[in-house]
Each structure stands twice: as structure tokens, then as C-alpha cells.
Amino acid sequence: MDNTIFAQSIARIRSLETKMIDKAKIEAMVESRDFNDCLRFLQDTQYGSYITASNYEEGLKSATIDIYKEMYKICPLREVVDILALRYDSHNIKSLIKGKLAGIDTLYLTVDAGTIPVDRLNIMVKEENFRDMPKTLRYYVEKAFENYKNSQDPQDIDITIDKGIYEYMLEIAESSKMEYLLDIVKLMIDTINIKSFIRINIQERGRDFMQKVLLPKGNLDKDLFLNNITDSLESFANKIMHTDYFKWVKEGLGEYIKKGDLGSIEKYGDNYIIDYLKKAKLVSFGPDPIIAYILARENEIRAIRIILTGKRNDVSPDIIRERLRDVYV
């Protein structure tokens, strides 16, 4: 593939990156006096028109949707954005299926940033007619209904849809012939599997449950997870010593042991991905900067949500700071 087709898109991305919130601004928000003071810090950012005191969550949702709208406009190949937009399809499908099965309206929980417009998706789920879905997604959505009817466990819906979404992401990445897309999907799969392994190990849920939730086709072999699920976490960390994941796993486990908070594992895994994305700053041609920008903006929105929620609930700056991920800029 001729990666120079991304040249104009990357020029636009470099301009957009200058509008992102840097570490100093994040720190100022964390140290702000209260919720309203924090809102004032956001007024001169690109979130100023989205955020209101009454409903900042809706504003952040709208900002997310607009990121994807803009990326679809500037990216020359739709599948580059689709790779990440599929995660919103996953969220939306899960929400709508659970709503249908419970007999409640869950449309308000959806985020219209996926590859399938929410209004169309809502009709598909209501009618249980998925013929217009891509084949892989259709198979797993129908399977999710079937699995729930057999088990009556809503978690089976999440597990089944997750497997389908990441399988479809891999299909798109492989057919695109863009190595970076395949790398980023496999990195996500490995990170999710490591997080799942640690949680299941701590909760002592065993090999069968690990097999059930394991996402296939990552870089790490499935037997690494299945054959070591009852071993110590230190032993597991040592077995991935020669991989790029060792450092964040070791540090995350260290903080978990010290504080007893599984959120440490999530945080260190997310920071690893952000650190990986920073390599895209050096790329002049290719899809890398587009993928990196989208994920960096999502990370930025999550940081704003954590800070505003903390300020609204009078959480101390130190605790808010602990919950934040690294920033991209």
C-alpha cells in the first residue's frame, strides 16, 4: 500500500494535536478549587462548547461522536477508523440486547460513534433481524441471544459480543494489509486477556472461566493463560518477562499488592497502550497517527470525566490524580 495517501490526513492530525489538553492543564484541573472552578478551566479548550454544569456526561458523549465524524471525513480509508469505531458497536449492541431482554429502553446508554448507526441498530435488535449486519457480527449477535436464553446470565452477552467484535476487528485489519492496524488490534487483545487473567486469578474462578472469556488470536499464546491460571501472579509475570508487557504487568501488580485495588491493573495496562501510541508522533505516512489520535482523544475525555466526577463528589486531588492515565501530548 502507498502510505503517502495519508499525508493530508496526518497534516490535519498534527494541527488537531495542538488543541489537546497537556499535562499541566490536567494538573491545574485536578488542583482546582471545586467543580465549577474546574469547568472554567475547560472553557478555553475544545470541550468548552460541550461541557455544561448540568450534564457534562452528555457533552463528553457528543464530543466522542464528533471525533469519529471528523476522522471519517479526513481519513482516506474508512477501515482505519472502523477498527476503533467497532468498540462502540460492541457497547451499543450489548446495551440494546440487555434492554430488549429486560423490557426496558436502553437507547440513552448508546454512543452513536460505531460503524452501524444507533437508530438502525435499535431496529435490528428490536426485530431480532440482523441480516444487514456483517456476517461475523451477525453470527455473534445471534449467538449472544442464544447463550443468554440457555444461561439467563447477562455476562454471557458481554463475553459473546466481545469475542465477535475483536474477531471482526482482526478480519478488517488482516484484509486491509496495513500492519499497524493488525498490531494495534493484537495489542488490545493481549492487554484485555492479561487484565482478565489477573482478575480471574485473584477471584479464583478457574481455567474454564478463563477459557470462556479469552479473546483468541493475540500475540500471547492462549496456553500461557489457561495453563497458569492457578499459579501465582508473580509466576505469571516472570513467564512474560521477555515480552513488551512485562514492565506494566509487574508495576501494576506491585501497586495492586500495595493498595488492594484492581483498578491499578487497568491503569497500568492503559498507560502501556498510550506509551505505545506515542511512537506514531514520529510517523509521517501511514494510518498510525490517525489511530493514535483517536485513542489519545478518548483517553483525554476519560481524564476529564474522572476529574469532573471527582470534583462533583468532593474527592481529594491526590485520589483523583491516582485514577488518571498518562496523557498523549
Automatic annotation (TrEMBL):
GO terms for molecular function: proton-transporting ATPase activity, rotational mechanism. The keyword Transport applies. InterPro entries: ATPase_csu/dsu_sf, ATPase_V0-cplx_csu/dsu, V-ATPase_V0D/AC39_subunit, V-type_ATPase_csu/dsu, V-type_ATPase_csu/dsu_dom_3. It holds the Pfam family vATP-synt_AC39. Keywords: Ion transport, Transport. Belongs to the V-ATPase V0D/AC39 subunit family. This is V/A-type H+-transporting ATPase subunit C. It comes from Caloramator quimbayensis.
